[in-house]
Design goal:
This protein is mainly beta and about 290 residues long. It has helices at about 5-30, 55-65; strands at about 35-40, 70-75, 75, 80-85, 90-100, 115, 120-125, 135-145, 145-155, 155-165, 170-180, 180, 185-190, 195-200, 205, 205-210, 210-215, 220-230, 230-240, 245-255, 265-270, 280. The chain has 2 helices and 22 strands. A hairpin with a 4-residue loop joins strand 13 (about 185-190) and strand 14.
């Protein structure tokens, strides 16, 4: 075989491999179930450290004294912002602080509040640094000159004491948060001394509300899901324990999209083996 022919054959083989790789990539994109291996960056692999203690109230009093240090909250320089809208003859204002600090939101928290500067609105999902700013510091919602909600944000998550008022500014409810976690949340530990977390059940108003997490004993994520009004909703995912090497889905269970949906029965949507190979998917022919 001539040298030129050998080069042509080699180029042909390389081209075929590239085409095959591109096809495989396209297949994976068109079929997200083709592999149970997911991007580990999309999921936390180490359990959070939750410290619900009684020092928050003391810290809150100290924070109030810092108001003279204009727009500095929790040691971070912030900017003031507001939104205004009219609805059914009433005027709604939101006054808040926000930060451009380069910090990723806590991946465990469901509702991350951020200011979309393009359409001047506050949103709770879809945050990227390029699109807006995390709320950080005091917040007030006002309807027709009456404060109906007030609280504090910490890098986009509800923090410390939040209060709700009626249209006569009479206190109706009070809740306590710690960096996005409702203080009512129930946490169990494998090891209390080392704070090795086993399970986090988010609780608000005595009902499960928010993101649920269960962890393997090595603290790798084991189960994720969401509660609304005490009901499991959406897609719940179980993960294999890979000793924090990879994040591999084990099984997905589909629950109702909205709570209290009548005649809905949860079902297994898909399953994968320990290597991430798809072994079952609802609707596939065996």
């Amino acid at each position: 075989m001539s040298r030129r022919l050998s080069v042509l054959v080699l180029l042909f083989l390389i081209s075929g491999q590239v085409t095959l790789a591109q096809k495989n990539d396209a297949d994976r994109k068109s079929d997200p179930d083709s592999t149970g291996v997911v991007n580990s960056a999309l999921l936390p692999s180490v359990a959070p450290l939750l410290l619900f203690d009684e020092t928050d109230e003391k810290e809150e009093k100290k924070e109030k004294k810092k108001k003279a240090r204009k727009n500095i909250w929790f040691g971070i320089k912030t900017q003031r912002g507001f939104t205004r809208r009219e609805l059914r003859g009433q005027t709604y204002y939101e006054y808040f602080n926000y930060t451009d600090a380069d910090r990723n939101p806590d991946p465990y928290i469901r509702d991350v509040y951020w200011f979309d500067s393009k359409d001047r609105s506050i949103k709770t999902s879809g945050y990227t640094k390029e699109e807006g700013y995390l709320l950080h510091g005091p917040y007030e919602r006002i309807v027709n000159e009456t404060v109906v909600e007030s609280g504090m944000f910490y890098y986009g998550t509800k923090h410390k004491t939040w209060m709700l008022f009626d249209d006569k500014n009479i206190l109706q409810d009070k809740n306590h948060y710690s960096e996005g976690w409702p203080r009512e949340s129930r946490i169990s530990y494998y090891n209390q001394a080392s704070k090795s977390i086993e399970e986090i059940i988010p609780v608000q108003y005595s009902l499960e509300e928010g993101n649920y997490f269960y962890f393997h004993e090595d603290q790798q994520i084991a189960v994720t899901g969401e509660y609304k009004y005490g009901e499991k909703v959406g897609l719940w995912t179980e993960y294999w324990d890979t000793n924090n090497d990879k994040t591999i889905r084990k099984r997905e269970i589909q629950y109702q999209e909205e709570p209290y949906t009548k005649n809905f029965r949860p079902y297994i949507r898909a399953e994968w083996d320990k290597d991430g190979n798809l072994i079952y998917r609802k609707g596939d022919l065996n």
